[in-house]
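Batch 3, record 17
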Amino acid sequence: KAGVTQTPRYLIKTRGQQVTLSCSPISGHRSVSWYQQTPGQGLQFLFEYFSETQRNKGNFPGRFSGRQFSNSRSEMNVSTLELGDSALYLCASKRAGGEEKLFFGSGTQLSVL
Amino acid sequence: GDSVTQMEGPVTLSEEAFLTINCTYTATGYPSLFWYVQYPGEGLQLLLKATKADDKGSNKGFEATYRKETTSFHLEKGSVQVSDSAVYFCALSPGAGSYQLTFGKGTKLSVIP
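Prediction for the assembled complex:
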């Protein structure tokens, strides 16, 4: 069974641009969540989607948004990039119901210059 | 709000040494507690979990006990190996259907032969 797939693996953008990251969950998983990982702040929750609906949102500005498609694939978008948005963005998926076990992808490393 | 505090390290141990990584938490209600591990260049993997007070999670020789009276979930291993070198994260989820994880800052472990 394939794991959580995130694309692209690396991205370099400049300030003011916008970026879209993609996440394909494990087959059969309907919950997808996103986390930002930085050396200073550690891992911080961005948002969670289930059946195309956002269920929870972390404390991030409105420049960070996401969505989930009917096949459970998810995208997150960051508009008007700032230097501080440089981070590893991790996606995790989970089966509906069942145990609380998240499966993480390898992440997208975003560098904002 | 919820928070997790763990010793930040880095921690360097010789092979076969005993490992303890301390983790304490602040949360309302009855959170579930987790230890995740991140190997270089990879996403996070669930190492072990405990969902209620006095539960002991264990996996691959690692153990942690959910202590509600001390709000702690310390990670231990009796004899570490070089392959255990990684970053370890303590985390909690609030339960009650929410899978939003709050993470500690992570502890980098290096095991030398």
